[in-house]
Amino acid sequence: MAQPAEPSSHILDAHKLAAATLPFADTADFADADRGFIAALSPGAVSDADGAVVWDGDTYDFLGGDCPPSVHPSLWRQSGLVAKQGLYAVTDGVYQVRGLDLSNITMIEGDRGVIVVDPLVSRETAAAALALYREHRGPRPVTGMVYTHAHVDHFGGVQGVITAQDAESGHCPVLAPAGFIEHAVAENIYAGTAMARRAGYMYGAALPRGPRGSVGAGLGPTTSVGTTTIIAPTLEITHTGQEEVIDGVRLVFQLTPGTECPAEMNFYLPQRRALCMAENATHTMHNLGTLRGALVRDPHVWSAYLTESIGLYAGASDVVFSPHHWPTWGTERITEFLSLQRDLYGYLHDQTLRLINQGHTGVEIAETLQLPPALADAWHTRGYYGSLSHNVKAIYQRYMGWFDGNPAHLWEHPPVASALRHVEFMGGAAEVLRKARLAFAEGDYRWAAQVVNYCVFADPDNEEAKLLQADALEQLGYGAENGTWRNFYLTGAHELRHGSLGTPTRAGSPSMLGALTVEQAFDVLSLRVDAPRAWDEHLVIDWRLTDQDRVRRTELRNGVLIHHNVVDSAAIPPAQLTITLTRPSLIGVLIGGRPFQDEVGSGAISIEGDITALGRLVGVLDKPDPDFAIVTP
To answer: How many CA atoms lie within 13 A of 612 on its CB side?
Structure first.
C-alpha cells in the first residue's frame, strides 16, 4: 500500500496565504499558556497496570519545531499550545495539570485538602496528574470532586483520584449539574459503539504522531486510551446562584443546560476571584454538531448563558479558566474574551436562521456565511474543533431536520446503490478515475473525493480507486485548519491504504455500565432487538429486584421490547418467567457479558417459570459492531 504523499502545490499556496494574512504577530496566547508553569511530567508517558501505554505526550514534541508544509499554519500554532504539558498555577490556591489528556484537570486547595475538577478521560492519566500535583504541593487528600458536565473527558478518570467509598461515605462529596448521570450514561451507552468508532476518526488516536499524521484535535492533543470510570454524584446542582462550601472553599454555580452539553455548569470562586467556564468558553469555536455524533447543541441558549456569565461574574473576576486550553487573566480581557465567545454563537445562530428563512439550505449557507472581522481575527474563535461549515449545517439540522425541502432529495438511493448508478452514468470506473485525476491535479480535492467515493462504494475491491481516494483525503487533511477535520481525513486515508484501525477506546466500560439504572439497562437491551427476527415473538418476563424491592416487567411484542414496573391489573398478562436478582447482577448478565448460568449456579440469580423465554429473548438480540466500515461499504 502507498505511503503518505507530499502536500501539493495547491495546499502550499493556501498555507502561504494563511501565514501572510492571519494575526501571527499576536503571541498573547503563548504567554498565557506558559504563565504559572511549575513542572512537567517526565517522561510524559502514562501506562496502565499491565504496562500498556495509554498516553504519551512526548510523541508531540515535534510540535516545538517550525511548521511543516503538511500542516495548516494556524492549526500548527494551536496544536503547539495545547500540547504544552505540566503543572501550572492559575491563581492563589488553584492549579491545573494540562497536556496529559484531551482535557485539563484542576485542583482547588481547601482547608484540609484539594477539590478536584474534571478528572480527565482515563483513570491512569488522572492518577498521574494528581501525583504530579502532590509531588510539588504535598500529599493533600482529595476532599471534593466537581464534574462540570457529562462528557467523558470530564469524569472518566475519577477512580484514579477517589474511590466510590470516598464518595458514599461523605468524605469526598461529588458535585455535578442536574441530569448529569442520565446524560453521561445515555451518551456513552445508547449510541456509544457508533460514537466510539467515529471518535477514533475525530481524535486521530490511532494515527501516527507527526507532520503527516496526528498533530492534535484542536481542543487538546487527543484522547487517552486508558480505563474510563464513573462515580455517581452525591450533590446535585439544580439552579443558578446555588452556593456550596466544600473544605472551606465557597463555590457559586451557574447552571447552563443545553449549551455544550445537555447537563453543564460554570462556577465562580469568590475567594479567589476566579471563574471556571466549563466548556462554554474555550480557545476555539466549539462544536454545535460534533463529528463523532451527539445531540445538536443550541447556540441561541449558549449565547444567552454567556451573556448571563458576563453579567454575573466577569467584572468580579481576575482569571477565567476552563477544563481545556489555558486561562485568561485580567478583568478587561476576560470580559472581551467572553463577549467574543458569546457573539460567535449568537452570530452563527442568527445568521443561519436569517438565511434559512430566505430559502437557503444548510450546505449553501455553510459555503457563503462569513464571520465579521472581530470574530475572524480572534484566535480563540477560529474553527480548530468546531467549524463554521459543520456548525451551520448543525443549526440547519436542529431547526429543519435532514431534509432540505427539495423533493429530489426526499428518497435518494442509499450509498452503494447510488454509487453503482453514478459510476455507470459517468462511463464506468476507469472514466471516473481518469476525470478524478484531472480534478486532483487542478487542486479540486473536494470533488475528487466525492466522485472517487462512488467508485469505492460501487466496487470496494478497486484498489486504484481506494488509493486515489486516500490521496485526495490526505490533501484535504493537510489543508485543514480544523484539527478534527484533519484527523477524519487522515484516518480515512490510512484505512483506505492499510485497513481498519478499529476503535481505540471501547464504549461501555465496566464502571460506566455499573452506573446504569435499571430503566436504562432495559433501554439498552431494547436497542439491541433485531425487530424482524422478533416480529412473531410474545415474551413476558418479570425481573424481581431484591435490592430495590420492586418488580420490573419486560414484554416483547411486535419487535418492540417495553418495560415498566409491575402493578396489579387484570389487563396485565401473567409472566412466563420470573427472574430474581439484584441490579448489579441484572446489568452484568444483560449487558456486561456475565454468563447467566454462572450467576444461577452461584445463587446470585434464581428463576421460576419457563426458562426458554429468556433464551428466545436472547436469540433476537444483536451485538453492536465496534469496527464497522466508514470509508468503504
So the answer is: 2
